[in-house]
Design brief:
Blueprint (H helix, E strand, L loop, with lengths): L1 E5 L4 H14 L2 E5 L9 H7 L8 E4 L2 H7 L4 E4 L5 E2 L10 E4 L8 H6 L2 E4 L11 H16 L2
Helix pairs in contact: 1-2, 1-5
Length: 146
């Protein structure tokens, strides 16, 4: 199971995602450009010393990531067609999350093998990126871990 972050904008969110991934045993793909310098202290502060326990792959851009992705690409989106509780995950899924402010462009939507939404009550539309990652990763691992 992998987590992919499409052009993340907030260093603290990435640090928190790296910490979650380390604790739950998922690798992380970072699709650049990012909205902060990789050596940003906020990444380290949020990730604490857990960053050394997660496999991180940085990709120059979407094309570089898309060329090497293996497994099913599951896009988490507020425009998702399938609710999280109706999704069946696979152990080789790549869970793709978009930018905090803009999500992903239509070309990325088109490349996704599945589009999933975390249901929430109206008129609210989205959760913090790191919270969304934790919710979805926990459910995906619950389904795929013997």
């Amino acid at each position: 199971m992998r987590i992919a972050l499409y052009q993340p904008e907030i260093a603290g969110n990435v640090g928190a995602v790296l910490r979650t991934a380390a604790c739950l045993g998922a690798a992380v793909d970072l699709i650049e450009p990012m909205g902060f310098a990789w050596d940003d202290k906020r990444v380290a502060r949020a990730g604490m010393d857990y960053i050394d326990h997660v496999a991180i792959t940085r990709h120059e851009d979407w094309s570089a990531f898309a060329r090497q992705v293996e497994g099913r690409l599951v896009l988490l989106t507020t425009k998702g067609a399938t609710p999280l509780h109706g999704t069946t995950f696979r152990s080789d899924d790549v869970l793709l999350f978009g930018q905090e402010g803009a999500g992903v462009p239509e070309t990325v939507h088109a490349r996704a093998d599945a589009r999933v939404v975390i249901p929430m009550r109206p008129p609210l539309r989205s959760l913090n990126l790191s919270v969304s990652v934790a919710i979805v990763l926990a459910e995906a691992l619950r389904q795929t871990t013997p």
